[in-house]
Task: inverse folding
């Protein structure tokens, strides 16, 4: 595995997943 | 008799300890404890004032994001960190992603072997810090729901609550357990390894100078590690084989204490819920339903595993020939090679002994297996892949309903979802607007409840279907057909339930980046499991908190003769029925295709 590509790539994916949870919190409030 | 006395004594001891502990927890979380000045100093700096439910939930997510960044950096920098006597190199990035997500969410599903992949720095700084913090998140989530149910609009401060949980609850109890573990022989050292001559030097081969090779025994601060691993229902092992290893589970006493430790806080939190609401009988009603399911899964597991022989050894004579479907074999089929012991007169009266650690007693595996999934601990003291097929339904059921005590706080939250759903259904049946704690349950609460409730089955069944139909799953399983399906479903069940136990048999490990022989499908498994874990962790926390806020803000209606009482045996049966009918039936088809088909089919189904 190319660490220079995959290491930041997986970090961004993890942050995106956490970002999704923040979005869900705001989205659910509209129910 | 001793087969049954082990689980019964564990459940009794834990319940007796949970009663006073629940009083203590309620006292702490209600803010009645006045800390000494040096601790108060920290409290004052952590508390940014009272928060509403949204600020509290935001703070929870922010802390988890910080934990993600911190943990990711620690693992990514492993080769340059201290306490790395064995020179562990860079960890493969998808393994880092999966591992970090897994540990910050209290799942601790491991796609790596700790003793082969991690340095002691990673074990201590990454694992140990997450053991405390991730375990506190669910605790705080339940606490905020209780405060919302009480009608409070300002629900405390998240960071102050985290401090209370970690410093006033986990650290003192973990310290006591660590001392006992130390006394029982678990290592407690920052030394990374010992080089030893084995008793059979010839078995180790020789080095370049012709001398017998030495064995490397990895050690670390295991007494402390183990106690919090269990008390926090984390379950992530220092060693790949987790609590089967003598350095993680040295004696029958530590095995007993590990079971008590993993159940202690989940048991206490149910009673804490009743106490903080001022409705202890209601808490006991919920506790009894959970206990009935806990006893049921343990009895099932023991009956079909400890009291039944291994059908792989007894079902067929060694001369019988079989071919079985295989995705990787030429022609799509491969011959079955029976175990060498098949057909031999092996004594089976002690039950299925495959994959068992017999130091702990014959029923210890079945007992541990049921308990560890019910409280979402995930540690194992035997090979779940080797359980008799239908016995494996017990751990499956624990993960599927995910509310048999469950993880700290989140298990109770899941049970509250079933509880409110049961009340809603019962209310509809008698034509009365359903109420919980004197608040009328409306459309918004039910919408949020169903979102939280349905995420779990979706996150198990959809990816299981995808992986069962593609090479991602077919080339990862060690066994084809029903047992292979069980391996896939177990992995996603464990991820979605934030459990962390592994069925094994799946090729999901990449480990170190320089690993010359990684599992071919490790990357898709790492990424898929990480996505499942995050969604199944936070969405079923956020939606119920929002539901509790919505319900708690309503005006209380007076208790009348027509109000459904929530502290009676009738209510307990209603709750039990709701969990079994709605929670378990969702998974009946996949249970039929996996463990049940394997049980009913030719043995061993998958070779």
Result:
């Amino acid at each position: 595995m190319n660490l220079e590509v995959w290491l930041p790539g997986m970090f961004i994916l993890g942050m995106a997943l956490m970002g999704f949870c923040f979005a869900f919190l705001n989205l659910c409030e509209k129910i | 008799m001793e087969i049954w006395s082990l689980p019964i004594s564990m459940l009794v001891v834990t319940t007796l300890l949970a009663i006073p502990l629940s009083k203590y927890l309620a006292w702490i979380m209600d803010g009645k404890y006045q800390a000494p000045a040096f601790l108060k100093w920290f409290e004052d700096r952590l508390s940014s004032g009272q928060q509403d439910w949204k600020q509290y939930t935001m703070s929870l997510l922010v802390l988890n994001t910080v934990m993600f960044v911190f943990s990711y950096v620690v693992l990514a920098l492993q080769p340059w960190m201290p306490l790395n006597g064995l020179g562990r190199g860079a960890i493969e990035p998808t393994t880092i992603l999966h591992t970090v997500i897994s540990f910050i969410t209290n799942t601790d599903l491991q796609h790596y072997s700790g003793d082969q992949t991690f340095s002691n720095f990673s074990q201590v700084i990454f694992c140990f810090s997450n053991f405390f913090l991730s375990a506190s998140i669910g605790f705080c989530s339940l606490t905020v729901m209780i405060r919302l149910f009480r009608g409070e609009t300002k629900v405390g401060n998240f960071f102050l609550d985290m401090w209370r949980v970690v410093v006033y609850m986990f650290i003192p109890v973990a310290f006591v357990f660590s001392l006992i573990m130390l006394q029982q022989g678990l290592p407690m050292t920052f030394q990374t390894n010992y080089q030893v001559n084995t008793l059979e030097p010839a078995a180790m081969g020789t080095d370049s100078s012709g001398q017998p090779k030495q064995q490397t025994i990895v050690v670390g601060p295991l007494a402390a590690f183990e106690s919090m691993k269990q008390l926090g229902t984390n379950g992530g092992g220092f060693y790949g084989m987790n609590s089967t290893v003598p350095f993680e589970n040295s004696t029958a006493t530590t095995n007993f204490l590990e079971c008590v430790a993993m159940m202690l806080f989940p048991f206490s939190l149910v009673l804490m819920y009743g106490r903080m609401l001022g409705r202890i009988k209601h808490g006991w009603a919920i506790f009894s339903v959970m206990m009935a399911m806990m006893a049921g899964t343990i009895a099932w597991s023991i009956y079909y595993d400890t009291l039944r022989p291994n059908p792989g050894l007894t079902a067929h004579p060694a001369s019988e020939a079989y071919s079985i479907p295989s995705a990787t074999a030429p022609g799509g089929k491969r011959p079955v090679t029976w175990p060498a012991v098949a057909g031999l007169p092996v004594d089976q009266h002690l039950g299925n002994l495959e994959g068992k650690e017999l130091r702990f007693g014959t029923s210890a595996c079945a007992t541990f297996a049921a308990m560890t999934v019910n409280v979402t601990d995930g540690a194992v003291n035997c090979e779940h892949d080797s359980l008799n097929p239908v016995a494996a339904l017990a751990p499956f059921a624990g993960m599927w309903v995910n509310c048999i005590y469950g993880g700290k706080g989140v298990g109770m939250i899941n049970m509250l979802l079933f509880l409110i759903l049961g009340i809603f259904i019962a209310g509809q049946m008698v034509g009365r607007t359903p109420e919980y704690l004197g608040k009328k349950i409306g459309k918004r609460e039910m919408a949020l409840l169903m979102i939280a409730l349905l995420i779990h089955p979706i996150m198990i069944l959809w990816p299981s279907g995808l992986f069962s139909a593609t090479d991602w799953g077919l080339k990862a399983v060690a066994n084809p057909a029903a047992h292979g399906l069980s391996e896939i479903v177990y992995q996603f069940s464990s991820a979605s339930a934030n459990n962390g136990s592994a069925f094994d048999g799946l090729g999901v490990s990449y480990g170190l980046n320089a690993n010359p022989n990684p599992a071919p499908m490790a990357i898709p498994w790492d990424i898929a499991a990480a996505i499942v874990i995050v969604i199944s962790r936070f969405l079923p926390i956020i939606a119920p908190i929002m539901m509790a806020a919505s319900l708690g803000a309503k005006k209380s209606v007076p208790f009348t003769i027509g109000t459904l009482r929530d502290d009676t045996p009738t209510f307990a049966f209603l709750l039990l029925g709701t969990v079994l009918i709605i929670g378990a039936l969702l998974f009946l088809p996949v249970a039929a295709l996996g463990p049940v088909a394997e049980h009913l089919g030719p043995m061993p189904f998958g070779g």
